[in-house]
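Thread amino acids onto this structure.
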């Protein structure tokens, strides 16, 4: 028996390396999986997907399994009975292993290493080999692509000869969408840059913007099928405006150069795809560049200089060209750069605005921090006053809805008084607004609370603070919309974080989108 196993393993490796199609003359059927087990789940509170062992066998490319952040993590699959296996397709997420093993077993205890795979590149992998009889299959990650991540799979598909698996059906009868994808749909990596799609309509200053901030710290995530499906989900929810965030990096607050991060910055191809996808659904786009400081320092503390502004201008002009070419409706020239928007640097900002208008014919906004907007001197050069509206509401960890409404009224009255006192006749948009689903989030809404214990989960406070914001602000004629922080391009498990997907606040959000 040992010699037979060695032969099968060698034959499988030869066929894989040669690119041969196993059982080329035979029809393959999809082998239904009864159950799955994993060595671990990712426990990151504001990033990980829900801990579901069957996420990789549900036919849904929006759900996934993600391991913890160590090597030698695995996921195993149980067919429920012995089957003849000859092909595996793995849809890897961005966190994939460069080296991994595929193991098989008849009893879920004694495992045979069918195939060690080295120097892999992720994406969609089609692995074909000589037929082997097995009930259990294990994918064991040996070395991760990124040591800061685990390994993660969207979907795993298993196939075998129809004649040897009479109870199973072709993939097209089980998961037709996956069958279509495997039949020849190109991946984002192999496509040429997409052509621009038309805007669903001109954005006017009078239009109420019903939006979300769409956040990705991943090179290709905005171009993924998961992102496409999430944008469809948002449209059905009632969202009609999407603020797509793009991040560049600087090393410290004293640094004078801003640059593309090879891991965190969405590449242009993926960004363009997301813009086109939003437009195809009938949603308008705000393109929202952010500067992140490596090490966690806040962007508002960045120390400006002539050299810094020269680098920043190059950054902004790059995205203003994309915004122009791909019919973006609203371009945000900056976000929460508090130290740089003082009167000393007024001429630098006016130069950026003038140059951006020479490239981009749509509307412009700046996203000022909640305690910054009153000191910005260039609002008259823009089309909107943009505020990242993380205003404190009360000093209580468990306020009533009436107290939250009173807190929001104080803040809205202050904005109105400032507009009148400074004769600023511009509509106001909350370029960001959000609350964690944690107890006390209304006290300091800008504070990330996702590192708290789960005993601090408070979905009701998040929902009540959101409702207070919309109920109060929508009474003021200058208020022309908001972008909720945040939605990810794929579903995250975020019990304490800002995202409202699947939480009480999402129901409130959807109802208000219908009312406004």
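Threaded sequence (516 positions):
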């Amino acid at each position: 028996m040992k010699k037979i196993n060695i032969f099968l393993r060698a034959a499988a490796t030869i066929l894989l390396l040669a690119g041969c199609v196993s059982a080329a003359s035979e029809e393959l059927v999809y082998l239904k999986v009864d159950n799955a087990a994993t060595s671990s789940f990712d426990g990151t509170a504001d990033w990980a997907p829900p801990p579901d062992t069957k996420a990789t066998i549900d036919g849904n490319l929006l759900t996934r399994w993600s391991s913890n952040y160590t090597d030698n993590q695995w996921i195993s699959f149980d067919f429920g009975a012995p089957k003849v296996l000859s092909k595996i397709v793995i849809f890897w997420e961005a966190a994939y292993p460069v080296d991994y093993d595929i193991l098989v077993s008849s009893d879920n205890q004694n495992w045979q290493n069918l195939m060690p795979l080295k120097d892999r590149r992720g994406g969609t992998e089609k692995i074909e080999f000589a037929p082997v009889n097995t009930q259990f299959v294990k994918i064991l990650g040996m070395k991760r692509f990124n040591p800061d991540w685990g390994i993660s799979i969207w979907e795993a598909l298993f196939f075998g000869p129809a004649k040897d698996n009479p109870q199973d059906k072709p993939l097209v009868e089980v998961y037709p969408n996956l069958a279509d994808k495997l039949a020849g749909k190109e991946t984002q990596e192999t496509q040429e840059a997409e052509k621009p799609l038309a805007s669903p309509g001109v954005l006017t200053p009078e239009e109420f913007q019903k939006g979300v901030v769409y956040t990705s710290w991943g090179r290709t995530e905005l171009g993924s099928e998961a992102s496409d499906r999430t944008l469809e989900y948002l449209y059905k929810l009632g969202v009609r405006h999407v603020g797509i965030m793009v991040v560049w990096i600087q090393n410290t607050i004293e640094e004078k150069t801003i640059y593309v991060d090879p891991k965190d910055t969405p590449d242009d191809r993926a960004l363009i795809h997301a813009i086109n996808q939003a437009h195809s659904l009938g949603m308008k786009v705000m393109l929202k560049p952010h500067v992140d400081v490596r090490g966690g320092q806040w962007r508002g503390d960045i120390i400006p200089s002539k050299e810094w502004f020269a680098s920043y201008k190059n950054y902004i002009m790059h995205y203003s060209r994309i915004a122009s070419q791909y019919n973006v409706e609203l371009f945000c020239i900056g976000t929460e750069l508090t130290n740089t928007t003082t009167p000393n640097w007024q001429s630098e900002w006016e130069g950026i605005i003038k140059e951006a208008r020479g490239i981009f014919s749509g509307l412009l906004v700046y996203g000022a921090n909640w305690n910054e907007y009153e000191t910005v001197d260039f609002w008259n050069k823009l089309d909107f006053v943009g505020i990242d509206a993380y205003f404190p509401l009360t000093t209580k960890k468990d306020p009533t809805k009436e107290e939250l409404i009173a807190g929001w009224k104080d803040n809205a009255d202050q904005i109105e008084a400032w507009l009148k006192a400074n004769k600023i006749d511009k509509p106001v948009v909350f370029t960001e607004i959000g609350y964690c689903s944690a107890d006390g989030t209304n006290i300091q809404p800008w504070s990330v609370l996702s590192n708290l214990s789960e005993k601090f989960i408070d979905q009701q406070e998040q929902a009540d603070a959101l409702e207070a914001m919309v109920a109060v602000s929508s009474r003021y004629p200058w208020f022309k919309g908001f972008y909720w922080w945040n939605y990810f391009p794929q579903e995250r498990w975020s019990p304490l974080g800002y995202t409202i997907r699947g939480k009480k606040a999402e129901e409130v959000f959807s109802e208000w989108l219908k009312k406004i």
